[in-house]
Amino acid sequence: MKKLLTGWLALITVVAPAFACTGISLKAKDGSIIFARTIEDSHNDLYSEYVVIPRGQKLFSYTPTGEKGLEFTAKYGVLGLSVVQKEFIAEGINEKGLETGLFFFPDYGAYEPYTPDKRKISVGDLQLNQWMLSQFSTVNEVIEGLKKVRVVGLEPNSVVHYRIGDASGRQVVLEFVDGKAHFYENTVGVLTNAPGFEWHLTNLNNYINLVPGDAAEQSLNLQALKATGHNSGFLGLPGDATPPSRFVRAAFFCATAPKMETAFECITQAFHLLNNFDIPIGIEIARGGKTQLPSATQWTSAIDLTNRIVFYKTAYNSNIRCIDLKTIDFENVGYQSFTLDELRAQPIEEIIIF
User: Fold this and answer.
1) Is 272 exposed, middle or buried (0-12, 13-18, 19+ CB in 10 A)?
2) If we measure between CA atoms, which residue out of 175, 1, 174 comes closest to residue 9?
3) Distance between CA atoms of 124 and 63, rounded to whole angstroms?
4) Residue range 2-194+261-339, CATH number
5) CA distances for 87 relative to 4, 41, 90, 205, angstroms
6) Which of 21, 254, 266, 322 is the catalytic position?
7) Cβ contacts of residue 100 below 8 Å, gap of 6+?
8) Could you say which of 89, 155, 171, 295 is the most buried, measured as most Cβ atoms within 10 Å of its Cβ?
9) CA dihedral over 118, 11, 37, 308, signed as positive or negative
């Protein structure tokens, strides 16, 4: 176990400046709730898998020292998308519609220091999604349950914050600052990375002038001014890949997106919106740096909380694939994980003209 944690430390140390995740949420006219996100690392392969956890599965958390932490048994079946190893679920949903995701949160967050005498109630930050999804069915249950455990960082300099939502449509952001848990109602339905969530909400005030559509024509002394193209009302919308800029873009894109009729239409819309946050290789790497990845955005997911379906695409294969939780027998299925890409190649359909 210590070997695995050491490997994670090596990875997180290299990629910490390059993590750039963007999360959005949408609601269809039929009431369906959709959570979607990207996950990035412009230098390293995150070795992502989809993970199935059956009801009754016995699990435990790692700790920073390699000791076994909190031990628990899955109350609900879980389907998650993991990074590095199957225990580290980055985004997932359980059979009751609870959905959680982790987002990198450097420099602004801090957990309680780990102490071996508290190991039996300690949950590693990278396994908190695994624990929450396997134990609870609603946001309220998560908030109450977290009072009974201590969340600890598995490695130095690795801090994350979380998006948590349920099938009712409620979603909150969980951040650990100075060792204490803070919950914020996510009124905009968006999450990126540092700084803290409240800072991002305040920063939106700097863009109060932005409106969808075109800016009105006006005169500057004797010079007539008019838009040179459509969407001039969004002039000033930040376009870089920093977390504050991505948060602003995501908030305005979601707020101005037309409300779709059904969950499936929302899923399609979510992938279209997140295409705007697909980070290309090069912009996050200093001149002379190298990478073997085709894209900094390693995968994009959209999860239907109402109908319990997980959709995803990857940097290697942009075809959208899905897994329906209703087809999984969580009573009898085994605890298992599989790579997101069986073959790392983009299928191409050739059109034959006769």
Assistant:
1) exposed
2) 1
3) 6
4) 3.60.60.10
5) 11, 19, 9, 39
6) 21
7) 89, 91, 92, 128, 129, 132, 133, 142, 162, 163, 164, 165
8) 89
9) negative
Amino acid at 201: L
State yes or no: is 21 an active-site residue: yes
- Report the interhelical angle of 243-256 vs 263-275 (nearest 10°): 140
SS3 for the chain is: CHHHHHHHHHHHHHHHHHCCCCEEEEECCCCCEEEEEEEECCCCCCCCEEEEECCCCEEEEECCCCCEEEEEECCCCEEEEECCCCCCEEEEEECCCCEEEEEECCCCCCCCCCCHHHHHHEEEHHHHHHHHHHHCCCHHHHHHHHHHCEEECCCCCCCEEEEEECCCCCEEEEEEECCEEEEEECCCCCECCCCCHHHHHHHHHHHCCCCCCCCCCEEECCEEECCCCCCHHHCCCCCCCCHHHHHHHHHHHHHHCCCCCCHHHHHHHHHHHHHCCCCCCCCCCCCCCCCCCCCCEEEEEEEECCCCEEEEEECCCCCCEEEEHHHCCCCCCCCEEEECCCCCCCCCCCCCCC
Which letter, b or e, does each residue of 139-151 get, where b requires 16 or more Cβ atoms within 10 Å of its Cβ?
beebeeebeebbb
Distance CA 71, CA 122 (A): 9
